Every structure is written in structure tokens, then in C-alpha cells.
């Protein structure tokens, strides 16, 4: 029994579960971002609690009636609402749980977008005055699934005319189309007794249409209905396909039941129309025969006799729109044989169409018909000449056409044979396609057109026309016919002129043996190509041919052939008419002014707008050159000349012609020129409005003269016609003759140009061109030449800033080992040209190297005692190339000098009494006694880093040399020979010659001369020579007797080459002791002397000594003569001054270590040196050693007070102030600084450079 109870319980539960069900297991709802769509679900056989698995997508609203079961509120119905905001397809599950059994049922809810909609209907046939039919919409997603509810959307229902809708497309409406709204009417459900949902009722109450509508037929006809969702966002443009509806009358036969007849019996049928449940007999109405056609489906059982109607006795009204036709009357029913009940007769009066309306009196029946009076059938060609297999489309017109049969229009062709095929066009019935199949000569064919029989055209009419067709297999000749609108006077048919930028269509015409052109010969193979200058144009094989130019002037040869029959034509592409200027300015005194025309065909005609009574110009056209026209000026004024190309009509050019006098001259070109070069300047002549004259034509009339202000002239200027830019701009060639500036002016008979300044400058170059230098060297390159006028700048560049770095302007500093190039370019705005011009450029090659070895250079190894000889250390790189001596030799290299015997010689610094100059690379040695001495020098640096950077070797570099000090030249106890030492090409003036002493020169060579008048010894260019200069006493002159003169002295005059230059500067001991270096602005005296190989000093030389420095911004030199110089340091730092005599051995070096004599302190107000304020008290300091015994050392100008001994100054007046430091009563150095008026006062905390309170950090 236990198993039975278990089985019984199982069956009860199963039956309970089987009884619970959901009204819809799955629903599909449409998505909309603004409207919520819903659907009502129902669960049966229980009371349910409703829930959603995705409340963010689907919301559940339980609906009444509600019940209370097991203490819970439950219902059978719930509203499922889709309110998602995402347009993606989504799904959720709705659960209904029975509160009694706990069992649940589910419904899957899918939310997706609508893709298509369609109209759902029961029938597409509507009856007049019958009940309306219900039409609904159904929507589908992208998978074709049907949406469960779409009633929340508004829809637009449209009625479309049946004549303009063809299932898939819309055609253009015709004037006779019946309006669809007069055939069918749309009704709302609220206007009927149909049941509807509250959602539909709400939509219609707000003036919208829902997814359900009613359609009612108004009159017979057809129309289309279409619906579309009203939504501008998501569902814009979603509409149904049009559905065709027809409206007809509800007509029935009487009797309407099955009829059984005996053989040869008759039965009369009547035709009734049903309206509003009422029937009307319409059998005998005239309109019935027009609107309805009655026939038997099967004639085996009997036949239908419809000749029982007659309406000729009825009274009609005839209305005619125009006078094309004339009404003649009506034919009685017993006089006609067609099926109509009456026949109206109209007579055509002229060609045209009219509308005729017939009204049946005492009735609302009427009918309108269009009648046409036609012309005979016409074709565009009555004869055709074709090649076999070619086609031609014949154009037909007129004939017996009728508005109701245009689309069924057909032609009958006779005779039908196998030579020619005829085919009517399927889209245009007026086109007839003809194809030649076989050769035929003059075949005659007849084309007949007949309109069709219809209810409104019971009397069809036909028209016939004939055509002659010839078909041939070959052609006889070819010709070209360009399609070009021109009146070109060219008579050569094998030559065409056309535009170079427009496509040229060319028709190819074929002829038969009678020179009759073929209408079509495309069945034959046509070969066409461009045979010359193919880069000028492309060929497009259309009909006609198209020559596509590539916008280049030139000629091509077009060749075409068919079956070995060839023809060719030359085509020239011509550019448009072009003139040099749009304005032609003519000089009033000019006889004939040429006008050159470029472009165009050369066949021109000319038009002017001037009056014939007072012409301004006269045109002279040359026969041999049509592109050259001469204009003869007649009067002052302005006119317009129009040039028209006869062969290319669209090519026109307008020229403004002005006859005037010259107002001013314009010159342009370069005004800054390099010496020994040539340049061009250009001249233009203008009228008062700035228009240009043709100078080449009037050059000899106006007589241009060029004047230069400088004499002798530095420019040679000549007219150069070959360099003229154009006829309005002539060229002058300028040859530079000498350096300098000059003013240039051009003038004609009455006009002068502006005064223009010209400059001729030397070619720009950098000196030196190549340098071998050490790292850390500062170099200032020198620019020679280039323009010297204001506005010119020098641009300096280096190709490798890792090797050489530009500090300022032309100062470079070497950094690392390597090679670099320094480039200099002179740039400025040329005043005449008005543009930036490069006046010159040059480069310098910089090799940054290390010292590999040194050589101690001494100009002689044998010298007399008590002589001075310079010693110089010359450095070399690893390739034994000399290294240029720069400032690095002073601040980074140390030279240690030593002698083997200081009794024989001593080192003497060039600038005597300054100890710091004893460790430089150059010094002097003074010989004291006879003997041999060895001179040694060692090179080192201040640090290991410098040693690694500057020296190739890590060890000390040294070199030595031996000097032989000779014994003095004398005999016994006599002095040595008194010698006058002269250099080549030198002069020596002799002074202090007593009156009774005469000088006489005795010379075995001719290179030494003595001028007795000026008492001057003169040498020529010979390097060697000797002479003796005697001093003779003339004696006392007595009566008739004189004593002979005697030699009282003699001098050896020697001419020798200079062996070396010696530099010496001696300062007083007490002054030099103050100097650790040369003060800035201090004038250092320097003597320069010249010596031979024994150390003897020359008495006269002709050396041109040149001084230079690689930092000429730091030092200046001046000399009263060739032996005394003043050296002035301009800036702090190290510098090398080189004295160069033009030969390698005639070179001397002066090392200069300079430093300012002042230390300018900062003030408590300004952190900047050289800027002070009124009231400041400044304690000035000097770098020079202080001499406590020296008073009145400091002086200043009136704007400041300075303590003369201690250098304490107070600033009194603003402006530039000057401070001076004196030693030994002379100003050694000076300094400038600015004094300003304070505009702001600030209180600073802490110490300052002047006064403090003794406790740091306290603020007073």
C-alpha cells in the first residue's frame, strides 16, 4: 500500500504542475529610448507573485484583481514593461510563482530593434458604399521574428496613386491620374464601433494613427496604401511596402443562381448594382457598356447577343476645348455597324489635339475623350548608306499616334528579307534600329504605323513612309571633319588649328565610290593613332574621336586607316593669345611702337574703341609676320585694343594703349659690388601712373646719360642689349675698377633719376685660412673685404660645436681634439635691390691638435758679446706641422728656461723687470762673454688634466740648443771697424757733418749710392754689397795755392739681409715692480730693432712690419716710426702680438698678460658691478701692487668724491663716471661705471659689503 500512496501523490503533483501555465511562454518587445512598451501576461490556475530576472531591462506591474492567499497579495495578470536605454538586443525572464503550491512558470522577454514592418489584411478589394475593412501592422526584428506588441508607436498611413506606384518603384505622375484620396478614405477606429485597446484610443484622441486603421472605398478605381513609423531618431525611414487596393461596385446578375435551359431557348439577364443593401438595375444605362464587359466563358452551350442597346435617340451635350475639331452630328443607331449605342462625328480642321466632353442630359453621366489630328509619318533619313554588319537608329515622328496607345506603338516593315533587319526600340517606340546583314543596292522598304483599336479608338488609322537603304562591304575613301566652331581662313583641309587645353572632337567620314558619305561604317575595323609628338596629346577612340591635349603647344600627326585605306591630318595645338603686358605705353615722340603677339593662330583681327574723328593710334600690320603689329601714336590719351583670334574665337586679349611722355626713370639691381667683378643694373622709364615704356624702341630717342660723382671713376658702365630682361627693362653692365664709393645718376633730355650710392668692396676673405691650434685656445678671426656700408652683418658658423665653440661674433674657442670648419658670410640689404644679398663668404679650417714636440728656435748660433738674441719655443703636432701660438701658451703652459753658464749669457724678458714674463714661450738672451753656452727649455702644464688635453706625451717635453759667443773683432788694442749696416732697398740720412768735411763713397758694387746733396746713402734690391765711405778734410784755401784734402775717417758700408727682429721694452724699476701683468689701458713702450747673423743692429732698413693678433679686440698698437711702438691692452686676459716682417725668420712674438687695475665691488643695493646709485660709498681696489709712499693715486670726475690716497669714493651725481689710477704721476689705467637714481628702497637682513653691526642676522 505504501507504493500506492506514493504513486497517488506523484500523480496529484504532476497534474497540479500540468494545470499551471503562462499565457505566452516567450514575447518580443520593441526597443525605444523614450517610449516604454508593455505587454500583459496571464498565468492560469493559481494566484501568483510576479518577478523579473533583469529589473534594469524589464519591469513588472501586477494588475487587478488582487487576492490574498497565504497572507500574500497575488494576481493572475501582470503588465510587462520594457524600459532599457541600450539599443543592443537584450533578454530577461519573467517568473510567476503560485503562492499556494510554490510552483513557478516563466516567460522569456526579448527586447530588440524593429527592422521591418508589413501590412496585414483580409482582402484588398473594397466595394463602394460598403462597410470599411480593418488593416493592421506587424513588425519584425532582424531575424524575422514578430513583435508581440507595437501599439505604443504612432504611424503615418498614406494613400498613394495607383498610376505612380509599380510595386517596387515610383514613376512620374501624369496629369490624368486619379487622386488616391478620392478613391479610398482612411477612418479611425474611434469613428467606428470596432473594439480597441486603451493605448489605441489614447493615440487617436491625440490626433495620431495607431497600428490599426479602417479603409473605405469612395469611388471605383485603385490606390496603394503604405504605413511608416513616425520617429525621427531610431526608426526613421522604416515603412511598409505599398499594398494595392481596388475599389469596385458590387454588381450582380439577375438571376444570380444556376440556370438550366432547353436547347434553342432564350433567357434575359439583368445587371444590378448593390449600394447600402439596396439594388439598382443598370442594364440599359449607356455607361454600363463602357464600364462593364459581359461575355460567355464557354460558347459551347450557347451565345450572347448584346446588340439590343441603342442610345442614338438620347439627348447629348457636346463640349470642345478648342477649334482643332468641328462637331458634325450624331449617327442614328440604325446607320452604324459597331458595338456602340451612338456615334458622334467630328471633323479635324488643323493639326493638334483637343478634349471633347459628352454629357447625357437629365443625368449625371459624362465622359471625356482626347482627339488628335496627326501629320503623316516622318523619318529623319530617307536614304541610308551603311557598311555590312553596321547599324543605324532611325528617328520617326508624327504619324497616327494616340494618347492611349503610345506604349503599344508598333511599326510594320515591308518587304521582309534577309539583307536588312529592323527592330523597334523597347523603351522609345519612335526609334527604329536598322542593321545591314548582307550587301544590297538601293533596297526600298516601307514603314507603316497604325494606332490600335480600343474602346475610345474604334477607327484605327495607318500612315506609310519609304526609305532607301544601301549596304556595302567596303569603303572608297576617308576624310576628317573636326568639330570646331571657328571662321578660320585656312584652306588646307589636312591641317587643323585648335586649342591646347580643350578636347577636340574629330569626326571620321567614309565615302563610297560616288563620294557619298556612309551613315555608319563601324562594322569595319578602324585603326587610329598619333604618329608624332605623342607627348602632346592622348587619343580617345570614341565616336567621334577625341584628341585630348596635354596643355602643351605643338603639332601632332593623326593617322587613321580602314582596310588599307589611309588618311592623315596635322593638328597644331595653339595656346591662347598672350601679350607681354596688359598695358601698352607708347612714347609720344615714337614713330612706330612694335607690339609682339605670342600664342594664338596668327590669324587676328583688331578692334579699338576710339572715335574715327580723333584717333589716338594707327595700326600697321605686316604681311610677312602677322604676330608683329606696329602702333603709330597720333595724340595723347588712352584707348583699348581688342585682339581676336579668327581660328580660335574664344581666344581674345584686351590691351590698354596709353600715349604719354616720360615722367621718371627707375633703376634697380645691386649697388654693392665686389672688386674685379661685373654686375647688371636695369633701367625702366615710366609715365606718371607707373606704366612702363618700351625702352628698347625709344632708347636712341631719349639719349640716356650716366654720371658718376667720383673722379676718377671707379665704375665702367656700358649698355648691354643682349641682357635686357624685356622691351621695357634695359640692362647696363657695370665693371668695377677700384675700391670706394660713388654716386650715380641717369638722366635723359628732360628727366633725371634719383641719386644712387654705389660701393665697390674688396673680396671677402678670412685670415688665416687654416690654423693648427691647441685646445682651450681663443681665436679671433679677421675679416678682410666685404661691404663696409652700414647694415652689413657677418654670420659665423661652425660645422662641429664639439670641436670649436662660437663665443661672440668672430671669437671662437677650441674645446677638443679634432677638425672643424668655420664659415663666415657677409649679408646685408642692398639699398637699390631692396633684398638681402650675400656680399661674400669664406671659410677657415681649424685643426685642434696636441703638442707632440717642441723646437727651441734661435735666429743665429754665433753671435758677438753684448748682443741680444730672441729665443722662441715652436710647437709641432704629431705630423710635425707647426702649431699656432695662442693665449693657451700663456695661461695653461709653463716654460722653464735654463743656461749652462750664466756668466756667459743671461735671459732677459721682452718686457723687462716683470718676473711673470720669464716663464713664457719667448724671451731674449743677452750675451756677456765669449764662450759656448747651452740653452734648455722644458714644457709642462698646471695639472694632469691639462697635460692630458694639451700634450701628446705624459712626460715633460724639452729641447735645447748651443750658442757660440764669439770674441770681439779688433786688432791689437784698436777698436773694431766702424760699420754702417744697411738693408736692401733702404735709405740712411747722415747728420752732423762738419762744414769742412766732405764725404766720398768708394764702392766696388753698384748697389750702394751716395747722394751728396741730401747726404743720403741708398741701396737697391741686392741682398749683399760693400763700400767705404771716406770723410775727407778739404783744407785751408790760400792765394793761388790750396792744400790737398786728406782722409780723416772711414766707415765700412755693408748691405746684408736682415737676420732677425728683436723686441724690447724697458720700464723703470720702481714702476715695473708694481706690475704682475700689464694694466688695461696702460701704454706699454716697445722698441723694434733689426739685426744680422752676428747680432749687430741695422742702421737702416726698408722692412714693412705687420702686427697682428688672434685676439685683436684685446690689444691695440700704434707706431710713430718703424722702431717704436705703443702697446695698449684693451681687455683682461692673455694675448699674443705677432710682428711679421714677411719672411719666416723675420717674425717675433710679444706675450701680453693684461688685467684691469681695478676691482669694482658690489653695492648693498645693486648686485651688479659697474652700476651704483647716488649716495653709495665705494671702496675701490687695485690689482697693482700698492705703494704706500705714493700719494694722490686716485682721481675722479666732478660727479663723485674720491679720496686720492685710499680710493674711497662717494657717488654724488648720476650719469657715467670716470675713475683714474696714477703711478709715477701718469695715468696707468682708468675705469668707467654708471651712477643711477634709486627708484625703490628695500631693507635687507644680514651683512653686506660695506657696513655691518657686528652681530650677523640683526636688522637695524
Automatic annotation (TrEMBL):
GO CC annotations, alphabetized: nuclear pore
Protein keywords: Signal
Protein name (database record): Uncharacterized protein
Spans through the membrane: none
InterPro entries the record matches: Ig_NUP210_13th, Ig_NUP210_1st, Ig_NUP210_2nd, NUP210-like, NUP210_Ig15
Ranges for domain NUP210 Ig-like: 20-112, 122-233, 851-964, 1056-1152
Thylakoid among keywords: no
Annotated signal sequence range: 1-18
Organism: Adineta steineri
Amino acid at each position: 500500500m505504501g507504493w500506492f500512496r506514493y504513486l497517488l501523490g506523484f500523480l496529484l503533483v504532476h497534474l497540479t504542475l500540468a494545470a499551471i501555465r503562462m499565457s505566452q511562454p516567450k514575447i518580443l518587445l520593441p526597443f525605444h529610448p523614450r517610449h516604454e512598451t508593455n505587454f500583459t501576461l496571464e498565468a492560469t490556475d493559481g494566484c501568483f507573485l510576479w518577478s523579473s530576472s533583469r529589473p534594469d531591462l524589464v519591469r513588472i506591474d501586477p494588475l487587478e484583481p488582487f487576492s490574498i492567499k497565504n497572507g500574500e497579495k497575488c494576481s493572475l495578470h501582470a503588465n510587462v514593461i520594457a524600459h532599457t536605454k541600450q539599443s543592443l538586443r537584450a533578454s530577461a525572464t519573467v517568473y510567476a510563482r503560485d503562492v499556494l503550491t510554490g510552483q513557478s512558470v516563466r516567460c522569456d522577454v526579448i527586447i530588440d530593434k524593429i527592422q521591418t514592418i508589413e501590412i496585414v489584411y483580409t482582402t484588398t478589394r473594397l466595394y463602394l458604399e460598403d462597410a470599411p475593412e480593418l488593416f493592421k501592422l506587424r513588425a519584425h526584428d532582424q531575424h524575422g521574428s514578430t513583435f508581440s506588441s507595437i501599439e505604443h508607436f504612432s504611424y503615418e498611413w498614406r494613400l498613394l496613386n495607383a498610376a505612380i506606384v509599380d510595386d517596387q518603384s515610383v514613376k512620374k505622375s501624369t496629369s490624368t491620374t486619379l487622386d488616391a484620396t478620392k478613391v479610398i478614405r482612411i477612418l479611425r477606429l474611434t469613428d467606428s464601433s470596432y473594439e480597441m485597446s486603451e493605448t489605441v484610443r489614447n493615440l487617436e484622441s491625440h490626433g495620431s494613427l495607431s497600428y490599426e486603421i479602417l479603409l473605405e472605398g469612395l469611388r471605383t478605381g485603385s490606390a496603394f496604401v503604405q504605413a511608416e513609423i513616425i520617429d525621427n531618431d531610431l526608426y526613421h525611414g522604416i515603412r511598409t511596402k505599398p499594398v494595392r487596393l481596388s475599389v469596385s461596385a458590387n454588381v450582380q446578375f439577375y438571376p444570380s443562381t444556376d440556370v438550366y435551359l432547353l436547347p434553342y431557348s432564350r433567357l434575359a439577364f439583368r445587371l444590378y448594382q448593390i449600394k447600402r443593401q439596396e439594388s439598382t438595375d443598370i442594364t440599359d444605362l449607356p455607361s454600363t457598356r463602357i464600364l462593364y464587359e459581359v461575355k460567355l466563358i464557354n460558347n459551347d452551350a450557347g451565345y450572347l447577343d448584346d446588340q439590343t442597346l441603342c442610345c442614338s435617340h438620347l439627348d447629348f451635350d457636346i463640349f470642345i476645348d478648342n477649334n482643332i475639331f468641328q462637331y458634325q452630328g450624331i449617327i442614328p443607331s440604325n446607320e452604324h455597324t459597331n458595338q456602340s449605342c451612338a456615334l458622334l462625328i467630328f471633323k479635324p480642321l488643323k493639326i493638334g489635339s483637343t478634349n471633347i466632353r459628352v454629357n447625357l442630359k437629365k443625368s449625371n453621366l459624362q465622359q471625356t475623350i482626347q482627339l488628335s489630328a496627326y501629320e503623316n509619318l516622318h523619318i529623319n533619313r530617307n536614304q541610308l548608306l551603311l557598311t555590312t554588319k553596321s547599324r543605324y537608329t532611325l528617328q520617326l515622328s508624327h504619324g497616327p499616334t494616340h494618347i492611349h496607345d503610345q506604349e503599344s506603338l508598333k511599326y510594320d516593315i515591308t518587304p521582309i528579307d534577309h539583307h536588312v533587319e529592323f527592330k523597334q526600340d523597347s523603351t522609345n517606340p519612335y526609334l527604329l534600329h536598322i542593321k545591314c546583314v548582307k550587301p544590297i543596292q538601293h533596297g526600298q522598304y516601307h514603314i507603316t504605323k497604325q494606332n490600335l483599336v480600343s474602346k475610345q479608338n474604334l477607327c484605327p488609322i495607318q500612315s506609310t513612309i519609304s526609305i532607301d537603304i544601301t549596304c556595302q562591304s567596303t569603303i572608297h575613301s576617308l576624310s576628317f571633319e573636326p568639330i570646331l566652331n571657328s571662321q578660320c581662313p585656312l584652306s588646307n583641309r589636312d591641317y587643323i588649328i585648335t586649342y591646347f587645353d580643350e578636347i577636340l572632337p574629330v569626326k571620321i567620314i567614309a565615302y563610297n565610290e560616288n563620294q557619298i558619305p556612309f551613315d555608319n561604317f563601324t562594322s569595319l575595323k578602324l585603326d587610329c593613332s598619333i604618329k608624332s609628338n605623342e607627348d602632346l596629346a592622348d587619343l580617345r577612340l570614341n565616336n567621334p574621336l577625341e584628341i585630348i591635349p596635354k596643355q602643351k603647344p605643338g603639332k601632332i600627326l593623326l593617322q587613321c586607316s580602314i582596310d588599307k585605306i589611309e588618311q592623315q591630318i596635322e593638328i597644331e595645338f595653339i595656346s591662347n593669345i598672350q601679350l607681354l603686358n596688359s598695358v601698352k605705353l607708347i612714347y609720344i615722340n615714337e614713330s612706330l611702337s612694335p607690339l609682339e603677339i605670342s600664342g594664338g593662330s596668327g590669324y587676328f583681327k583688331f578692334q579699338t574703341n576710339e572715335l574715327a574723328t580723333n584717333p589716338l593710334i594707327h595700326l600697321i600690320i605686316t604681311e610677312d609676320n602677322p604676330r608683329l603689329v606696329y602702333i603709330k601714336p597720333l595724340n595723347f590719351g588712352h584707348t583699348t585694343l581688342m585682339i581676336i583670334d579668327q581660328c580660335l574665337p574664344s581666344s581674345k586679349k584686351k590691351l590698354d594703349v596709353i600715349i604719354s611722355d616720360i615722367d621718371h626713370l627707375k633703376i634697380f639691381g645691386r649697388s654693392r659690388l665686389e672688386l674685379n667683378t661685373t654686375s647688371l643694373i636695369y633701367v625702366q622709364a615710366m609715365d606718371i601712373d607707373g606704366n612702363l615704356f618700351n625702352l628698347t624702341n625709344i632708347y636712341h630717342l631719349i639719349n640716356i646719360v650716366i654720371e658718376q660723382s667720383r673722379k676718377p671713376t671707379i665704375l665702367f658702365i656700358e649698355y648691354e642689349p643682349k641682357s635686357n630682361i624685356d622691351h621695357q627693362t634695359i640692362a647696363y653692365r657695370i665693371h668695377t675698377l677700384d675700391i670706394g664709393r660713388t654716386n650715380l645718376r641717369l638722366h635723359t633730355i628732360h628727366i633725371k633719376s634719383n641719386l644712387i650710392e654705389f660701393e665697390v668692396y674688396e673680396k671677402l676673405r678670412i685670415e688665416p685660412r687654416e690654423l693648427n691650434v691647441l685646445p682651450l685656445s681663443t681665436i679671433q678671426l679677421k675679416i678682410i673685404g666685404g661691404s663696409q656700408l652700414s647694415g652689413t652683418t657677418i654670420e659665423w658658423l661652425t660645422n662641429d660645436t664639439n670641436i670649436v665653440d662660437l663665443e661672440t661674433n668672430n671669437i671662437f674657442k677650441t674645446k677638443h681634439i679634432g677638425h672643424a670648419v668655420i664659415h663666415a658670410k657677409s649679408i646685408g640689404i642692398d639699398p637699390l635691390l631692396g633684398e638681402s644679398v650675400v656680399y661674400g663668404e669664406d671659410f677657415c679650417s681649424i685643426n685642434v691638435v696636441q703638442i707632440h714636440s717642441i723646437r727651441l728656435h734661435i735666429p743665429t748660433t754665433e753671435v758677438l758679446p753684448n748682443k741680444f738674441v730672441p729665443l722662441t719655443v715652436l710647437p709641432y703636432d704629431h705630423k710635425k706641422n707647426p702649431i699656432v701660438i695662442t693665449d693657451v701658451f700663456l695661461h695653461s703652459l709653463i716654460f722653464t728656461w735654463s743656461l749652462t753658464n750664466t756668466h756667459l749669457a743671461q735671459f732677459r724678458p721682452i718686457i723687462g723687470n716683470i718676473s711673470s714674463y720669464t716663464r713664457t714661450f719667448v724671451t731674449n738672451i743677452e750675451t756677456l762673454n765669449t764662450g759656448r753656452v747651452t740653452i734648455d727649455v722644458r714644457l709642462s702644464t698646471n695639472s694632469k688634466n691639462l697635460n692630458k688635453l694639451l700634450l701628446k706625451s705624459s712626460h715633460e717635453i724639452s729641447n735645447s740648443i748651443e750658442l757660440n759667443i764669439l770674441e770681439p773683432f779688433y786688432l791689437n788694442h784698436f777698436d773694431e771697424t766702424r760699420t754702417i749696416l744697411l738693408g736692401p732697398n733702404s735709405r740712411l740720412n747722415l747728420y752732423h757733418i762738419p762744414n769742412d768735411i766732405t764725404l766720398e763713397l768708394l764702392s766696388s758694387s753698384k748697389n750702394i749710392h751716395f747722394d751728396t746733396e741730401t747726404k743720403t746713402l741708398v741701396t737697391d734690391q741686392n741682398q749683399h754689397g760693400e763700400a767705404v765711405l771716406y770723410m775727407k778734410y778739404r783744407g785751408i784755401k790760400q792765394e793761388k795755392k790750396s792744400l790737398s784734402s786728406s782722409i780723416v775717417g772711414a766707415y765700412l758700408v755693408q748691405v746684408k739681409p736682415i737676420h732677425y727682429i728683436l723686441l724690447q721694452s724697458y720700464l723703470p724699476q720702481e714702476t715695473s715692480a708694481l706690475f704682475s701683468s700689464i694694466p688695461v689701458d696702460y701704454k706699454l713702450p716697445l722698441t723694434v730693432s733689426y739685426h744680422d747673423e752676428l747680432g749687430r743692429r741695422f742702421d737702416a732698413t726698408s722692412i714693412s712690419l705687420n702686427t697682428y693678433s688672434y685676439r685683436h679686440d684685446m690689444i691695440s698698437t700704434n707706431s710713430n716710426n718703424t722702431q717704436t711702438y705703443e702697446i695698449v691692452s684693451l681687455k683682461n686676459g692673455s694675448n699674443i702680438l705677432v710682428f711679421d716682417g714677411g719672411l719666416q725668420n723675420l717674425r717675433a712674438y710679444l706675450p701680453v698678460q693684461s688685467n684691469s687695475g681695478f676691482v669694482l665691488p658690489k653695492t648693498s643695493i645693486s648686485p651688479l658691478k659697474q652700476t651704483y646709485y647716488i649716495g653709495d660709498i665705494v671702496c675701490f681696489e687695485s690689482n697693482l701692487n700698492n705703494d704706500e709712499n705714493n700719494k694722490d693715486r686716485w682721481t675722479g670726475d666732478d660727479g663723485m668724491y674720491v679720496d686720492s690716497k685710499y680710493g674711497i669714493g662717494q657717488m654724488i651725481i648720476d650719469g657715467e663716471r670716470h675713475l683714474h689710477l696714477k703711478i709715477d704721476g701718469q695715468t696707468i689705467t682708468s675705469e668707467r661705471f654708471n651712477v643711477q637714481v634709486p627708484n625703490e628702497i628695500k631693507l635687507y637682513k644680514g651683512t653686506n659689503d660695506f657696513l655691518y653691526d657686528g652681530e650677523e642676522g640683526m636688522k637695524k
